[in-house]
Specification:
about 20% strand; P-loop_NTPase; Small_GTPase_ARF; single chain; metal-binding; about 30% helix; binds magnesium ion; binds guanosine-5'-triphosphate; six-stranded mixed beta sheet; Small_GTPase_ARF/SAR; nucleotide-binding; Rossmann fold; alpha/beta; about 200 residues
């Protein structure tokens, strides 16, 4: 009997390993930040950023981060009138990719308020956040250190977070962002959603 149970446990364990881990990642940020462009840069080989079509609903894509880890990425439209719907996507989220346009200094306060609102949600308690300082291919993009300061990121003390420069145009930092997210999730005490 003991042996049967032992064998059974081993089979179950190996099945879980083979299936790997799946995580639900939510991409948020105000309109024009580059969420959809980054989503496709992450999931579509040879993707080239195109004309601006603001997202009215959502896009969802799967990406393989490592042999065992897959992310389901949800990109939700960021126009102000759509933001009240974001909360419908919060439940079961394992990680937040918060995207901002590093060239748009005029909207930084809006970006700051938007991020703070998201992080207040009880559904997103303890959920790690990677802030993507996007459009770093532009010469006038704000430096990471300036963004840390202006967005008062040091005041985020209730979860793991980091900021990563990206460009959906060149692809710079895009892969790193996914790896960093995986690392933050691993470090967080929160259990992963079973995929
Ligand atoms: N040069 C450059 N352009 C970018 C980058 N990321 C996005 N863009 C452009 O910025 C515009 C807005 O990008 P989107 O990906 O549509 O932005 P979004 O965050 O999905 O916007 P909503 O769907 O309205 O919430 C598009 O014209 C993109 O081509 C980038 O890293 N570099
Ligand atoms: Mg979009």
């Amino acid at each position: 009997m003991g042996n049967v149970q032992y064998t059974l446990n081993k089979v179950v364990a190996s099945n879980i390993l083979r299936r790997g881990k799946k995580a639900r990642i939510l991409m948020l940020g105000i309109d024009g930040a580059g969420k959809t462009s980054l989503l496709f840069k992450m999931s579509v080989p040879d993707y080239v950023v195109g004309s601006a079509i603001s997202t009215l609903g959502f896009n969802v894509e799967k990406v393989k981060v490592t042999r065992n880890v897959r992310f389901t990425l949800w990109d939700v439209g960021g126009q102000e009138k759509l933001r009240p719907f974001w909360k419908n996507y919060f439940e079961n989220t394992d990680g937040i990719l918060f995207v901002l346009d590093s060239t748009n200094e005029a909207r930084l306060l809006e970006v700051k308020n938007t991020l703070e609102n998201i992080l207040r949600s009880p559904y997103l308690k303890d959920v790690p956040v990677v802030i993507l300082a996007n459009k770093q291919d532009f010469a006038d993009a704000l430096d990471i250190s300036v963004l840390v300061d202006r967005l008062e990121l040091a005041s985020i003390k209730d979860r793991r977070w980091l900021i990563q420069g990206t460009s959906a145009f060149t692809g710079a930092g895009v892969w790193e962002a996914l790896k960093q997210m995986k690392r933050l999730m691993k470090e967080s005490s929160r259990p992963w959603r079973r995929g």
